Amino acid sequence: MKLAIIILNWNGKKLLEQFLPSVIQHSKDADIYVADNASTDDSIVFIKSNYPSITIIQNKENGGYAKGYNDALKSVKADVFCLLNSDVEVTSNWLNPIIKTFNNDKNTAIIQPKILDYNKKDYFEYAGAAGGFIDKYGYPYCRGRIFNTLEQDQGQYNDTIEIFWSTGACLFIKNDIFKRLNGFDEYFFAHMEEIDLCWRAKNLGYSIKYVGASEIYHVGGATLKKSNPKKTFLNFRNSLIALTKNANGFILGKIFVRLILDGIVSLKFLLEFKPKHTLAILKAHFSYYYHLKHILTQRQSIKNKIKYYTRTSIVLDYFVNRKTKYKSL
To answer: 206 and 254, same structural domain?
Structure first.
């Protein structure tokens, strides 16, 4: 099995300086690429000077995560792609359990390792933690992380299980499956595009796995911090798009409930004196409704839509019933 690790970069020289060494040290059997999204810093000069063995793919524009990877992966020849954030430190045995899982289960299309916090290494990291799921209304959550509550890693998720979505911080996907799915939906730009990709894979009958024997450490928010209203806009808008495109059942009812729940969240931001985030949610909904005709056309093209949730509302579970850990759900 030929494996290629592709790191998407945008003005991230400092991150490459810090994290490339661990990737190179612990990925001897993989080809390593840096896909550059039209950076204006000296990232490319740094790589060429210090790591001549790394293949550089220079994208013509900064198309975000989705278009950046879609463009870059066209020129990568491998059986499996590892899409790896530039702010990730990998460990000595991170690849072997992944490859073994792919070899043991031919229906597995996508795999995620255990994601721990680089700055607090005995805790799970926000983006992906120990594997992702969504509720009926499209709100994502993880084993090891529900909203902003992060669990300490005590070996409780040292397993290999079926999950619903893999984080884009470190996503392994078979080349042929990525092509069959036509890659990421570029309208997403960034955030939630990996959930949409995984959802489409699930609707086609493929398996997505979490492999706890593989560990990495993720900084998180290195490109766009959680406090940035643009991130709030992308998360809420893209979540609505993914739900509308891919969910089974009566979609208008789900969107109506989302309108109410998102309204409550926007009010919460307002009461916390974060009006820019309230405005970001409003903008997310306006953008979604403006493009709704196109999104519904995409929905019609997806013929098989599986049941995708086990929790009706993670919002109520967390904020009302105070269930802050995955095992309490």
So the answer is: no
